[in-house]
Design a protein that fits this description.
131 residues; alpha+beta; 5-stranded mixed β-sheet; 3 helices; UPF0102 protein ACFPK2_15930; Restrct_endonuc-II-like; UPF0102_YraN-like; tRNA_endonuc-like_dom_sf
Amino acid sequence: MTERAARAERRSRRARRSGLSGRRAEWLAILWLSAKGYRLLERRFGGKGGEIDIVMKRGRTVAFVEVKARGRLEDAMAAVTQEKRRLVARRVRQWLARNPWAMAYDLRADAVFLAPWRRPRHVPAAFALVL
């Protein structure tokens, strides 16, 4: 195996591991929010160029939830960058174009932060949605 192929294989393993931990974090966030009375509408909406991790509804509120899992809660909170917020807002506009009924609801950008051995931290209105 060439050095280049070995590097690609290591990256590939790391990407699979990262993807698995991201999906696990999303399911933990869904369970946490479901226990708080939210109902799942959609998961992993979007694709290349960014995605909305989960879309949840409770009462008159539709929440577009960014899920971040890191070794420390503080690191997870810092991972929601301005660029990520911009990408989420773009995907929210696309989601709303496909789900116009939601325009009658209160729209919010929430976040759920996860770290080992810590309770998940749900932050309602974690950042402003600029639509």
